[in-house]
Known about the structure:
The protein is α/β, with parallel strands linked by helices.
Amino acid sequence: MNQDVWNAVEQYFDGLLIPADPALDAAVRASEDAGLPSIAVAANQGKLLHLMATMVGARSILEVGTLGGYSTIWLARALPEDGRLVTLEADAKHAAVAEANLATAGLSERVEVRVGRALDTLPQLSGPFDLTFIDADKENNAEYFRWALQLSRPGSVIIVDNVVRAGRVARDDPSDSAAQGVRRLHEFISAEPRVDATALQTVGGKGYDGLTIALVGS
Ligand code: SAM
């Protein structure tokens, strides 16, 4: 198995299950034109986020790590008219691109982009959020998860992206700060009785990675 096979399979499924979408395509183009890094979730992952938010009947969503708002658009579209999404972004330029992309997608009313380091903006929020998507600097994953849990209710879902680190998560290498951040997160989850979780490895157009899905209990 190699990247060519993963690309072909992803294109096959996406061709059948994920129709072209002018607002999402425009968000990708605008983010590229603005020079943002190409590190948004793939379309099939965005659709997974959308389906999960729909399945839990989310009325309030929290996102940590906005970039150009690509995953934000997928998530916000699962909300009802009076739903709300708060997305946290440290980089003012990324936040400005996201706000423009959300306006193009007709979602500005439902989405608030908060600029600042997430560890500074999280304490300003009041929950509960029905779903949280964590996708920012991996070093602070455990702290973001702690906050997400505090801002959750029983039945809330917390999803964390990029947990595989090209397989390095399985190695305890102190020099790899991102992998260490992911390891600390899973050690925290493992010891937290209010949370039930699983981690999946994924392959596709964006390479080899994975995500963790956690359900908050009482
Ligand atoms: N969720 C986005 C998507 O799929 O479209 C991708 C997010 S990108 C992987 C990570 C984002 O987190 C970047 O825009 C980065 O600027 C932001 N970020 C990094 N450190 C942060 C921090 N401490 N607080 C808030 N945002 C941060």
